[in-house]
Design goal:
There is one protein chain. 80% of the residues lie in helices and 0% in strands. It is mostly helical. It has one domain: Farnesyl Diphosphate Synthase. Helix 3 packs across helix 5, helix 3 packs parallel to helix 7 and helix 3 packs antiparallel against helix 8. The longest helix is centred in the N-terminal third of the chain and has 31 residues.
Length: 298
């Protein structure tokens, strides 16, 4: 069991785990709009979000790596980055280049390529002081709620709009917005949940995240409400899907998982593992439920 734990943590530290979550959410998007083949268009629509999120998160973690501060805040991840930093940078660059090429060659062409690279400038504006010192907020991360909404919207754009454009799918605007809202709400829960564990560090740095402003107790209430809201939005998308019943079952299963990991985090025990493996693995459960749904609706 300890070996499995270390293996899962290594996947999380290498951002493989998180990028697979992007693939799972993209699978759900394409399934909900009527794609039930696990190859062909589905493969294209899944691989591009995986490549985009892997590259942007790896560059963010590795390029902005601060050996002293990161070793204090997350020693295990910092040690992993120190050991494998050149390889991670190489893989991220390879993912970015290949993903960009495949995006441009996809049915979405230049539009798909633009959506593929959108997370990169957002990541820079999010974590870098792009505005002059006279401004109160010099990066998106410093705006209360800005971090969570920006990250969640970027995930929704990458895991909903990108696969639809790349595969040439054209669902109704209502369906597109419902799927966008489902992913956005789920990742709002994810990002705010991560901030709960960083309350002390964020307060010291002067970063007023939602947990810093509300406190842990009220933040967990917000997260539970948001997880339920995300499920309701997802059910709305399921009702518009040609696979209504299995799609609804997929949404409910994922909503239950979101509530479960939020409540697991309430205990405060092993919060790092809950964040890195459970919370960041939410898309893997999504992928599993989509595969079951595909088999069920075949």
């Amino acid at each position: 069991m300890e070996r499995l734990r270390r293996f899962l943590e290594s996947l999380a530290y290498a951002n493989v785990w998180l990028s697979l979550t992007a693939g799972g959410l993209s699978m759900a998007t394409l399934y909900f709009v009527g794609e039930r083949s696990l190859t062909g268009p589905l493969a294209v629509g899944v691989l591009l979000p995986v490549g985009s999120m892997y590259a942007v998160y790896t560059f963010d973690k590795v390029v902005q790596w601060d050996p002293v501060a990161d070793a204090a805040n997350d020693p295990a991840r910092s040690a992993f980055i120190a050991t494998f930093r050149p390889y991670l940078l190489g893989l991220a660059a390879l993912g970015a280049v290949l993903g960009g090429v495949f995006a441009f060659l996809s049915p979405g062409g230049a539009k798909a390529l633009a959506l593929f690279v959108v997370p990169f400038p957002i990541a820079i504006a999010y974590g870098t002081n792009v505005l002059p010192a006279r401004f109160r907020y010099r990066r998106l991360k410093d705006v209360t709620g800005g971090k969570s909404l920006t990250v969640a919207a970027t995930w929704a754009l990458t895991c909903v709009t990108l696969p639809l454009v790349a595969t040439g799918k054209s669902p109704s605007i209502t369906m597109h917005l419902a799927l966008f809202g489902w992913v956005l709400a789920r990742f709002f829960v994810n990002t705010v949940f991560f901030d709960v564990g960083d309350i002390v560090g964020d307060e010291a740095a002067g970063t007023r995240t939602i947990p810093v402003v509300l406190g842990a107790v009220r933040t967990f209430r917000l997260l539970e409400f948001s997880a339920v809201s995300a499920t309701l939005v997802g059910l709305g998308a399921a009702m518009l899907s040609p696979f209504r019943v299995p799609a609804a079952a997929c949404v409910i299963a994922n909503g239950a998982f979101d509530l479960w990991y939020v409540r697991a985090g309430k205990t405060g025990r092993d919060l790092g593992f809950v964040c890195d493996v459970y919370a960041d693995g939410l898309g893997l459960l999504t992928a599993a439920t989509v595969v079951v749904c595909v088999c069920f609706s075949s």
